[in-house]
Amino acid sequence: PNGRVETLLSIGDPDGSTLDAQGHLVTTASVLRAIIQVAPDGQYKLLASSYQGKKFNSPNDIIVGPDGAFYFTDPTLDLVKGEKQETPFQGVYRLGKDGSVRLLTHDLVQPNGLAFSPDGKRLYIDDTEKKEIRVYDVAANEELKNGRLFGKEEGDDGVPDGMRVDTQGNVYVTGPQGIWVWDPAGKRIGTILVPESPANLNWGDADYQTLYITGKTSVYRLRAKAHGFVPW
């Protein structure tokens, strides 16, 4: 409101972020190799930093699921130089309200952005290295089943990274030239062109009809005809 930009917390290379039920910022911290909760005064609390006693690689993106748990990806894309990869795969995890960490899948090369379908029955995850978007059916116990290819991006100016869905179930993924959009059946609708290669995006404003997009050097605001899906 005052037009000023202030630093809330400086921890080195934070990436994906979301809000918990109390409105706290929860973010992936690549340098800390952890998931942290950030208070309004900038103080942070470590929520998770390992799986089965081994450090995460470099947690990348995070969302809230229909069950209220956090779901996040852990590629090696931002593994701190000189530090050892302890977990021998790049996984997708569920962080429960009780602090428990469960591995959901490790069949992607470099898992990155992720998003649930509006009904919570499917989970989309993109693989930055293979430039693919995969989709999984979500079982009653939150296990992922029937992983399969949903879409693939082509082009050199960008890779699949951030991901969101709208209320109709269309999937928006940042990639070459802008934001690639697929319908729920996996049919490519088109690309929303962005002046520079985008990294992430989110729905905002009171009506959730505005896309906020982060690029390499800028942040963009785009009014859309679609309504963004409001997380649980």
Concise structural overview:
This protein is mainly beta.
Instruction: Measure the end-to-end span.
Output: 26 Å
Average pLDDT, to the nearest integer? 93
- List segments where confidence is low: pLDDT < 50 over at least 5 consecutive residues: none
The share of residues in extended strands comes to: over 45%
Characterize the structure shown:
The strands form 6 sheets. Strands 1-2-3-4 form a 4-stranded antiparallel beta sheet, with no helix packed on it. It has 232 residues and is an all-beta fold. β3 and β4 form a beta hairpin. It has no helices and 21 strands.
Characteristic key phrases:
about 230 residues, mainly beta, 4-stranded antiparallel β-sheet
Task: Annotate the secondary structure layout.
Elements: E1 14-19, E2 25-29, E3 34-38, E4 44-48, E5 50-51, E6 54-55, E7 62-64, E8 70-74, E9 91-95, E10 101-105, E11 111-116, E12 122-127, E13 132-138, E14 144-152, E15 163-165, E16 171-175, E17 178-182, E18 188-193, E19 198-204, E20 210-215, E21 219-223
Antiparallel strand pairs: 1-2, 2-3, 3-4, 5-6, 7-8, 8-9, 9-10, 11-12, 12-13, 13-14, 15-16, 16-17, 17-18, 19-20, 20-21
